[in-house]
Amino acid sequence: MKIIVIAIGGAVGAVLRYLVSLLVISQMGDSWPYGTLAVNLIGFLWQLFETITYADNMRLLIFTGGLGAFTTFSTFGCNRSLPPSKISISVKRQVLAMEELSCLAAVGQ
């Protein structure tokens, strides 16, 4: 049952991530990965200000599945594999450094 709950949350999180990224790119352009920054900031702020206690399955649905698909690691792999012509090397290095620092900060909590 837990796997199904995580899968449902992941499906919703992935679709929301895609839609938020499209919205941000339509407003800001794609010269810098603003969509990645937006979803990671939303996920970070959600977890930072989260004070509600959830039942186990709801926590798995929202955080493990939903925010897991909505935020960092799938994006990290996507950004790492972008061709240099799509994004400049210096911008790519900046984004990767920010993502790596974010991961280290999250692990340190």
From TrEMBL:
Q: Which InterPro entries match?
A: FluC (IPR003691)
Name the keywords, alphabetized. Cell membrane, Membrane, Transmembrane, Transmembrane helix
Q: What does the record give as the reaction this protein catalyses?
A: fluoride(in) = fluoride(out)
Does the entry feature the keyword Acyltransferase, yes or no? no
Any one GO CC term of this protein is: plasma membrane
Query: In terms of one coarse class, where is the protein primarily found?
Result: membrane
Task: Give TM regions.
Answer: 6-25, 32-49, 61-78
Its localization reads: Cell membrane
In the bilayer, the protein is annotated as: Multi-pass membrane protein
Q: Which family, according to the similarity comment?
A: Belongs to the fluoride channel Fluc/FEX (TC 1.A.43) family.
In Swiss-Prot or TrEMBL terms, this protein is called Fluoride ion transporter CrcB
What is the organism of origin for this protein?
Answer: hydrothermal vent metagenome
Q: Tell me the classification of the organism that encodes this protein.
A: unclassified sequences, metagenomes, ecological metagenomes
